Amino acid sequence: MEASPMPLVLRDTGEDRKKMFSKITRLGAAPFAAGLLAVSLVGCMSIESAEEPTEASSSNASQPENSGPVEGSVTPSPKASEGVSTASPNVPKAPADSSFQSVYDFLETEATETKCTDGMDIVEMGLTLKLVGNCKNVSISGTANMIIAPHITNLEITGIGNVAAVKNIKQVTFSGVGNSAASLNENTKVTDNGSSNKFGQGAFEGITF
What we know:
Region (Disordered): 52-96
Strand content: 15-25%
Organism: Glutamicibacter arilaitensis
Mean pLDDT: 74
Protein name: DUF3060 domain-containing protein
Number of helices: 2
Order of helices and strands: HHEEEEEEEEE
């Protein structure tokens, strides 16, 4: 007679369930922990990568826009030569017209101021003078001189081709040739013992200054 097989009986005890749960927990916790570690590492890398451009941009922003001239690139402006006088571009090269005031103003910009002495005689050639002071008796015996003055009491012109513009003159005497003189006052006494001399309005017409 064959013996009947014994049935397999599984005992479900509380102790067995605890062991099985602990094993499952250990098996599942390892991948989960590894996943958390990987996520944290990726987060750190992304944060550091994001912070690096910010620092670079901050350093760029801190630099001034104008960093100043590069050495050797600045060209100094030219300096005027010392001791060299440059004529003003506003000084006219000729009178505006032949009127007394235009001629006087033009010659005044060109004239050398000279103090009058009683009985002075201008014997030189080609001078341009402004006579100032007490001009009582003045003679011009030189050639091609140009004379201006606020006042001369007695003017004698014995030279050739001289020009005299005197604002107030009491008496003028010509004994030379081709001289021209004019004044603003109308009661000047004029004596002409020379030739081709002119006095008064129109005296400066045709003269090249």
